[in-house]
Amino acid sequence: MMEKVNIPEIFAEDVFTDAVMQERLPKSVYKQFKKSIDEGRDLDLATADVIANEIRTWAIAKGATHFAHLFQPLTGVTAEKQDSFITAPKADGSVVTAFSGKELIKGEPDGSSFPSGGLRVTFEARGYTVWDTTSSVFVRHDAAGTTLLIPTAFYSYNGEALDQKAPLLRSMQVISDSSIKLLRLFGNTSAKKVAPSVGAEQEYFLVDAAKFEQRKDLIYTGRTLFGAAAPKGQELDDHYFGTIRQRVASFMKNINEELWKVGIPSKTQHNEVAPAQHEIAPIYANANVAVDQNQVVMQTLKRIACQHDMKCLLHEKPFAGVNGSGKHNNWSLVTDTGENLLEPGDTPHENKQFLLVLAAIIKAVDKYAGLLRESAADPGNDHRLGANEAPPAIISVFLGSQLEDIINQYIETGSASTSIEGGFLTTGSAALKDITKDATDRNRTSPFAFTGNKFEFRMVGSRDSIASPNIVLNTIVAEAFDDASERLAKATDFDAEVDALISEYAKAHSRIIFNGDGYSDEWVVEAEKRGLPNLKSIVDATEVLESEDVINLFDKYGVLTPTELKAREEVKYENYAKVINIEALTMIDMATKQIVPAVIKYTKSLADTVIAVKAAGSDASVQADILGEVSDLLKATKSALTELKAVSEQATNKEEGKVQARFYNEVVFKAMDALRAPVDKLEMIVDKEAWPMPSYGDLMFEV
Ligand code: ADP
Ligand code: MG
C-alpha cells in the first residue's frame, strides 16, 4: 500500500515559519522582529539572541547538529559553510550546544576563493554573510545529518556585494518605492509596499546514474560533448505532457514531499518536450524568497535523483539535437494590500493605471533590451537562445491580441475605447459545457510574454539563478515608473496626462512589441530592421554592462555601484573562459584516451576480418570499404584533435577577461565542433560493443 501524504500536515514542517515564531517567541521579541522588517531597520543583538536561542532549540528538536549560512556567490550555485552547535568542552569534559544572535545575523566565511571580479585580492579574505530576515530559516535532512540553514546575502569587507541576493534586495526596495510613488498619484493611499512576485518554472533532465558515470563529459561539464543522434528524438511529440514513467514518478513524489516540508509550494509537474526531460513549478512568492526557493529546488532535484540511482541534469543543453532546458521567470508587482498592478481586469481599456504600468514596462524593456538579454546570459544558454527551441536572443514583448489592440488604439487616436473580448469556446457536444475563453491566446516563442496578469521572461537558463533577471526587471521598471511619476506630478489635467504618456510610450517603443513567431528567420531580419539588438553570444551580451546607460541606471538606484558592476562583468568573462576551457580539455581527454583507442582497436578487428575473409577466398570489399571509411574519419578526428589542443593552448595565453572570453567563443568553440563532427559519424559506424560510452539512445530512453 502506498503511504498517504497529508499536504497541510507536512507543509513547512521543517521551516521556522512566522507561525512557529509567534508561538515560541515572547510577544515583545516577535513584535520587535516584525517591526525591524517593516521599517527596514537592523535587528538589535539582544532580540537576535533570543530568536537565535529559540531557533536552536527548535532545530535541535528536529535533529540538527549544524547550522550554515546559505549564500549565492557569483558562481550561480549555492554555497554554505557548516558549523556545529557545539561549544568548547568544559573542565569536566562535557559540552553543551549554543547559537548566538551574532551567529544568526552574521557569518564570516573565508570568501577569498569565490569569484569577485577583482573586487578583492586573495589575501583580503574577509567576507560577511548577513541574514535575510525576510526569507525563513529551515532545516535540511540529508546524508550529512540535519542542518539549520539561514538564507543570507554576501558582502566583501568593504561592503561590496559579492553575491546575487544583495543587489536583488536593493532592487526590490527600489521597485517598491517607485511603485508606491506612482500609486499615490493614482490616489492609492493604503498600500505601503509593493513586492515583485516571482514564479520559476524549472526544466531538467533525468538520466540513469550508472550510465552518467560512464561519460566523462557529463561528469565534468554537465553536458554531452560527443554523441550521435538517437534514431528517435522528440519528433513525435509523444513525451510532452505524456505519461510519467514509474521510476520518474516515484522521484517526483519524493521531490514534492521534500519541497513541501521545507515550505516550497511545489505545484505543477509534467514531462517536457525532449525525451527524459521534465518540469517542476512551485507557486510564486516574493522575488527574494522565490530566488532562494529555486536554488533549493535545484539542489533537491540533484540530491533526490541520486537516491533513485539517477542523475539530474540542470545544464541548458545536455544533448544536441533535442530541446535544452530553460526556466520561465514569471513576474508581477503586488501591493501589500493584495493588488496586482499587472491585473488588466475585464475591460482593460478602462483601466488607466494598468495601461500606464504596461506602457512603462514596454518602454523599460525596449530601452534596456540588451541588459535584459544579458541577465539570461550563461555559458550553457548560448546553445539555446536562437536555436529554434528557446526564444531567440532578440528581446521582444508579446502582449496578445487584446492588449495589442488597445495599444494600437492609443497609437492611432491617443486613447482607447474598446477591449476585444474572449467570448465562448463552443465544444459542440451536449456532454461538454461551453467554456469562456481568455481574451488572448498564448505565444510560446516570445521571450517576454504577457500571460494574463504577469510577464513571463522565458530566456533564463535552467542552471542559472533567477536573481539577475529579477534585479534587472525591478530596476528598469522602477526607472520607467519614476519617469512617469515625474510627469504626472506636474500635470494640471491628470487623466489627460496619463493618456498622453501611454500614447507617447506606445509610439516610441512599439518596435519591441511582436506577436508573431519568434523562432522564424523572418523575425531575425525584421528585428534588425526595427533596430532591436540581437546579442548572440554571452560575450556580446556581457559587453552591455559597459554601456553608460546601464552603469548610470544601477548607480542612480544604488543597486550596483560602477565597481560592483564592473566586477560582475569580469566574473562573467572569467567564468565563460573557464567553462569552455574545461569542455575543451574534457573533449581532448575523451578523444585521446577513449575514442581514438577504441576506434583503432576496431580498425584492427576490421583489418583482421578483411584478411581472413580474403584468405577464405571470399569478397571482402564491404569490410574493406568500412575500414576505409573508419580510417578516414579517424584521420579527421586526429587532425581536429591536434587543432583543438593547439587553440586551447593559445587561449590560456590570452589576456584574461573579454579578450580571452572572445577567443574561446570564436576559436576554441569552433574547434570543439570540428572535433565532434567526425566522432559522431564514427559512432554511427563503429560496433556498439566497441564504443566506449553509452549512446544518446541509452541515456535518453532507458531512464
Ligand atoms: P503557465 O501560464 O506558464 O502555464 P502557470 O499559470 O501555472 O503557468 O504559472 C507558472 C508560474 O507562474 C507558477 O510558478 C505560478 O505560480 C506563477 N505565477 C502565477 N501567477 C503569477 C503572478 N501573478 N506573478 C508571478 N508569478 C505568477
Ligand atoms: Mg510558463
UniProtKB/TrEMBL annotation:
Domain GS beta-grasp: 65-159
Domain GS catalytic: 164-595
SMART domains: Gln-synt_C
A Pfam family matched in the record: Gln-synt_C
Membership in a protein family: Belongs to the glutamine synthetase family.
PANTHER family attached to this UniProt entry: GLUTAMINE SYNTHETASE, TYPE-3 GLUTAMINE SYNTHETASE
Protein name listed in UniProt: Glutamine synthetase type III
UniProt organism field: Pseudolactococcus carnosus
